[in-house]
Every structure is written in structure tokens, then in C-alpha cells.
Amino acid sequence: MKQFTDFEIDSLSGEPDLLTELQGQVVLVVNVASECGYTPQYAGLQALHKELHGQGFSVLGIPCNQFGSQEPGGPAEILGFCQQRYGVSFPLGVKSEVNGPDRHPLYAWLTDPANGNPGDIAWNFEKFLIGRDGRVIARYPSATAPQDAVLLQDIADALAED
């Protein structure tokens, strides 16, 4: 069965195969957008990444323009927005589709019924927690804030596992 790092996605700034550097880490994958009501979650995601990165945790943002055209910019615009407005230092992948026939293979895998979290992505800022073993632990709806108690406990539990 495939695992998280079996997929390839380039970074928004052009480096190839972003997921390889995340192997063995606990990762929170989030489809992000710059003009969404949930965009302020960037601040919480960055705080979470900064606080837990030294323990083997990373946020991974995947920009997506499929929901209300809320991520219209190109790579430089998205990077500039994220870094200037929210101080984002976590990895950002290339803008990708998360639903439909052009869905990125990573999102096809994340939403595969075999991984226990089936169904299309409903909106920007849906989250998937990936364990160190490269398997999907849980899925969280867009409204789940980065400092949500259940999400934080799930991350703590995943970080505690070898």
C-alpha cells in the first residue's frame, strides 16, 4: 500500500519532490487559499509548525484555486502573501487541484476509501494528519482551527509514536 512520501509534489518555489524531506515526520496537509474566510488560519498553522517542528512535525500547505477562485495568484504572489502577511516558513507545494479529474495523485490517495477518509474535499483549509509511518491518521473539516483541542491531541499522540 502506498504511503505519503510515495508521491511527488514540487514546492511552490520550484524545488522538486517536496515530500521526500518530510519522510518520518508527522505532517498536517492543508489545502490553502489566500482569499478565503479561513485564510487567517495561516497564522495558527505557522504557530503550530514553529512550536512543533523541532519534534518532527511539519505543516504542508497545498494552494488550491478550486473553491470560489480564492487562490488566483501565481507562485511568486502566493509565496509573497504567505511570507509577508503570515510569516509562513512551512513548506508550500505547487498549486494543485484536490477534486475532479485533474486531482493531484496525493489528494486521490488522501481521499481514497482505503485510507479511511473518503470523499471530495469540501472547501479550502481541510486538513489531513499523516503519521511518521506515512499513513493517514485523521481528516479535519475546514472549520477546525489549528489550535483545536482534538487536533492538538491527535498531533501529540502521533508525535509520541515511534
Task: Please describe the structure with a list of short key phrases separated by commas or semicolons.
162 residues, alpha+beta, Glutaredoxin, 26% helix
Oligomeric status: single chain
Q: In percent terms, what proportion of residues is strand?
A: 5-15%
The outline comes out as globular
Poorly predicted runs are none
Distance between the termini: 20 Å
Q: Structural class from helices and strands?
A: alpha+beta
Please count the helical segments.
4
Alpha carbon gyration radius:
14 Å
Provide the helix percentage. 25-40%
Strand order of the largest sheet: 2-1-3-4
CATH architecture: 3-Layer(aba) Sandwich
Q: What pattern of helices and strands is seen along the backbone?
A: EHEHHEEH
Give an overview of the whole structure:
- The chain is an alpha+beta fold.
- The chain has one domain (4-160): Glutaredoxin (3-Layer(aba) Sandwich), CATH 3.40.30.10.
- Helix content is 26%, strand content 14%.
- The chain has 4 helices and 4 strands, in the order βαβααββα.
- Strands 2-1-3-4 form a 4-stranded mixed β-sheet, with helices on one face.
- Helix 1 links the parallel strand 1 and strand 2.
- The radius of gyration is 14 Å and the shape is globular.
Brief synopsis:
By secondary structure, the chain is α+β, with helices and mostly antiparallel strands. The chain has helices spanning 41-52, 75-86, 105-110, 149-160, and strands spanning 26-32, 57-63, 127-130, 136-140.
